[in-house]
Amino acid sequence: MSFIGNEEVDKIVSVLLDKHGEDLVVIDLAAKSFLADFFVIATANSDVHKDTLVDYTKETLDDMGISYKTEGESSSNWVLIDAGFVVVHIFSKEGRDFYRLENLWSDSPIHHIS
Questions:
Q1: CB pairs under 8 A, 24+ apart, for 97-102?
Q2: CA nearest neighbour of 46 among 98, 93, 14, 13
Q3: How far is CA 18 from CA 21, 46, 54, 57, 90, in A?
Q4: Closest by alpha carbon to 4, among 55, 56, 39, 53?
């Protein structure tokens, strides 16, 4: 299934949907930032759910042969998986409300995935 048109990002989105990631958003940063081409943002409904989303995202990146760095795994609010061209943000509801990344990048194309 194609969500964004980027095969790797679409696989990540698919895994997050399969594992019931909530409020899934992809922000296209290619024209706006040198940090990454895409931010993928999902909300977890518990710490266990957050860990599940993180584990399956990392497994997907491993399967695609994409290296990454992870930050915040001990945090209950936000885990970041930086794979270079794509950065995956897994938030708690409280963390998502606090950091409001969609608002920070509101001048970029934002794709809401349902």
A1: 101/27, 101/39, 101/41, 102/25, 102/27, 102/41
A2: 93
A3: 8, 16, 13, 11, 15
A4: 39
- Domain ranges in the chain? 7-112
pTM of the predicted structure, to 2 decimals: 0.95
The string of pLDDT tens digits covering residues 21-72 is 999 999 999 888 888 999 999 999 999 999 999 999 999 999 999 999 999 9
106 by DSSP, 3-state: which?
A: coil
Q: How far is CA 2 from CA 39, 74, 79, 101, in A?
A: 16, 32, 25, 23
In CATH terms, 7-112 corresponds, of 3.30.460.10, 3.50.50.60, 1.10.3470.10, 3.30.420.270, to: 3.30.460.10
